[in-house]
């Protein structure tokens, strides 16, 4: 596996996850929530807290894996171990951002307000865009 091949694979994976994120928005917009009750604020707060932890963990995974991998890849572009660390960091952090956006779907079907739902979706989307795979 080469640096360019890894970058291509990571962009495909990231793009697929981002496309799913866009489909979440379509589902939220087109499928109405069937529950008339609003979710308790404790549940919304719990999802918000979990989201903060997920995004912080995603940033830490990126810092630990991707930054160290990039240092190695700048001097040895096809280092197998560094390419593995890069892939692991990129996929894990993207999955964590995706989970935050997925909370918006859950919250929508629990009867959350549009503002609550949008907050989770936007947070996940911003993380996905900021964490788009870049060349070392």
Describe this structure in words.
There is one protein chain. With 136 residues, this protein is an all-alpha fold. It has one domain. 81% of the residues lie in helices and 0% in strands.
In short:
The chain has helices at residues 3-30, 41-75, 80-109, 114-130. With 136 residues, it is mainly α.
List the helices and strands and how they pair.
Blueprint: H1 3-30, H2 41-75, H3 80-109, H4 114-130
> How many discrete domains?
1
| Residues in helices, as a percent range | over 70%
* Helical stretch tally: 4
Mean pLDDT: 94
How many individual β-strands? 0
- Strand residues, percent: under 5%
Taking pLDDT < 50 over at least 5 consecutive residues as the criterion, the unreliable ranges are none
What gap, in angstroms, lies between the N and C termini?
A: 15 Å
Shape: elongated
> What about the largest sheet?
none
Instruction: Work out the radius of gyration.
Output: 17 Å
> Element order, helices and strands?
HHHH
Helix- and strand-based class? mainly alpha
Features:
136 residues, mainly alpha, 4 helices
């Amino acid at each position: 596996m080469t640096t360019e091949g890894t970058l291509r694979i990571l962009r495909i994976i990231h793009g697929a996850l981002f496309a799913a994120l866009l489909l979440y928005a379509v589902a939220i917009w087109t499928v109405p929530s069937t529950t008339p009750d609003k979710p308790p604020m404790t549940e919304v707060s719990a999802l918000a807290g979990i989201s903060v932890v997920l995004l912080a963990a995603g940033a830490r995974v990126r810092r630990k894996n991707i930054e160290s991998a990039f240092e190695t890849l700048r001097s040895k572009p096809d280092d197998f171990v560094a390419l593995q660390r890069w892939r692991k960091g990129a996929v894990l952090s993207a999955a964590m951002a995706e989970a935050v956006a997925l909370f918006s779907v859950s919250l929508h079907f629990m009867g959350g307000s549009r503002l609550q739902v949008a907050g989770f979706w936007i947070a996940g989307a911003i993380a996905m865009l900021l964490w788009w795979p870049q060349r070392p």
